[in-house]
Amino acid sequence: MSNLIAVAYDDVGTARNVLGTLNELGIEHAIALDDAVIVEHRPDGKLKLHQTTKPGAVGAAGGALWGGVIGLLFLAPFLGMAVGAATGGAIGAASDIGVDDQFMKQLGEELTPGSAALIVLVRDSTPDKVLPRISPYGGRVIHSSLSDETEEQLREALSVPAAR
Fold it and tell me: The pTM is what?
């Protein structure tokens, strides 16, 4: 089961840096993310969601593959790939996986203009490897499904940002 964690930052650049660090930690197998989104509350008051997964692109790639295979059966692989890609892209774009968009927008409304939040679905992590790498960025936990003890560890790690 994944844990949902939302951390607010003073600006979108810091949120992007933390996401980059989490991606590096993912390569090192210190954390496994199911989804990650940056919610930006722009100075003009509008919200912008920076999604890391593109369901339409994933669906199009899968659809092209299966369409090509089926097209080979009917001796029209390119037509099959085109139809498969279009169908897979449409289905992928229509499906909503990961963090609920309405929930993200609700959290974004609570942010001050000019700030941002990083919302992640964490499937698995090694906190003693992750926390030292993200603590220099600071941040404020605004929502989590972690246990009280684990959430307190995260809050403490983020409350004393080190010099970058």
Answer: 0.70
User: Residue 10, SS3?
Assistant: coil
Does residue 115 contact residue 41 with C-beta atoms inside 8 Å?
Answer: yes
The DSSP symbol for 112 reads P
Residues 122 and 144: their CA atoms lie apart, in Å, by 11
Find residue 50's DSSP bridge partners.
Answer: 38
- Three-state SS for 24-85 is HHHHCCCEEEEEEEEEEECCCCCEEEEECCCHHHHHHHHHHHHHHHHHHHCCCHHHHHHHHH
CA 105 to chain centre: 14
40 within 8 A of 47, measured Cβ to Cβ: yes
pLDDT in tens, 21-71: 999 999 999 999 988 999 999 999 898 888 875 444 445 555 555 555 565
Sheet holding 140-144, edge to edge: 47-51, 31-41, 116-125, 3-9, 140-144
Cβ contact 104:123 at 8 Å: no
